[in-house]
Amino acid sequence: MQLSDREIWAVIHGLILGTGFLLAFAGGLVGLWSLRLKYLTVEGVRERLPRLGLWTSLMAIVAWLTVFTGTWIVYPWYRDPAPTSPRNTLLASENTAQWHEFGMEWKEHVAWLAPMLATAVAFVILYYGVQLIRHNEWRRPLLILFTLAFAAAGVAGLFGAFITKAAPIQ
Predict the structure, then answer these.
(1) Could you report the per-residue pLDDT of 40-56, keeping only the tens digit for each?
(2) 134, burial (CB in 10 Å: exposed 0-12, middle 13-18, buried 19+)
């Protein structure tokens, strides 16, 4: 099997960074969910908080790398003005035009929420640290923001997979 440079970047963008994003989300979600005073000892706090900061920070970093590579490396190839470009291929048929009109709009705009939300959650965790355990009311909004970051990226990834299937970058 041989991949072109463009296909390699598409794999880095979608598969490699996407997988890292999923793993970091799982680690961060478990850490946030279990961050309850009744579950933690002093030793548990010392062990969990650095790991929680690591997973949430990693998710934010991977999310930024994903949107950067998508926006400035892969996306220009999608928008190539050639009649055979993925964008023009999708728009050429009524059956696939919606993949561009809704799917790519989501990827272009809404997907940017993922790194912003993930960064906000990572910042709060790194900044407030142990105080998060004492203030249980902060945990729920962090879980919601973290999950929204995952959902925005997940939908973008799903659209990306379907769009690539319908009109691959060559």
Answers:
(1) 777 877 788 899 999 99
(2) exposed
**pTM for this predicted structure:** 0.90
Q: Provide the pLDDT for residue 19.
A: 92
| CA separation for the pair 117, 156 (Å, rounded) | 15
Rg of the chain's alpha carbons, rounded to an integer? 19
The DSSP annotation for 42-71 comes to HHHHHHHHHHHHHHHHHHHHHHHHHHHHII
Reported in sequence order, the residue ranges of 73-130 that DSSP labels E, i.e. its strands, are none
Cα gap 152→148, rounded to integer Å: 6
Are 163 and 42 within 8 A, CB to CB? no
Domain definitions of the chain by residue range = 5-166
Burial class (CB in 10 A: 0-12, 13-18, 19+), 109: exposed
Is residue 48 exposed (0-12), middle (13-18) or buried (19+ Cβ within 10 Å)? middle
CA dihedral for 85, 86, 88, 92, sign (positive or negative):
positive
List CB contacts of 126: < 8 A, sequence separation 6 or more: 53, 56, 57
